[in-house]
Amino acid sequence: MKIIRVLLGIIVIAFSSYGLISENFELMPFMMLFLGAFMLATGLVELQKDRKRFEGYMCIIVSLFIFFVSIKGFLLN
């Protein structure tokens, strides 16, 4: 799970860096999709560590919101 989080983090940083440098924001829905997957993985790791605290649940809720925004971005383009 750690490899997946690192890989998703690198992908998110690459997409966001490309968008900031080139000022081309057409790939923003893809970046949001990978950011949602990263947040979901982070939330699941927190819950698997038997730390059923607020952070794990909050990461999952935020990831669902990011997925919703990403899907709207795909549909509106």
Structure, briefly:
The protein is 84% helix and 0% strand. With 77 residues, it is mostly helical.
Care to describe what's here?
It is a single chain. This protein has 3 helices and no strands. The chain has 77 residues and is mostly helical. α1 packs antiparallel against α2 and α2 (28-48) packs antiparallel against α3. It is 84% helix and 0% strand. The protein is globular and about 40 Å long.
The biggest beta sheet, please? none
* Helix-residue proportion: over 70%
Question: Kindly state the mean pLDDT as a whole number?
Answer: 89
* Broad shape: globular
Please indicate the percent range of residues in DSSP E strands (runs of 2 or more). Answer: under 5%
The radius of gyration over CA amounts to 13 Å
What is the distance, rounded to the nearest whole angstrom, between the alpha carbons of the first and last residues? 32 Å
Main attributes?
77 residues; mainly alpha; 3 helices; globular
Q: What's the helix and strand layout?
A:
Blueprint: H1 2-22, H2 28-48, H3 54-76
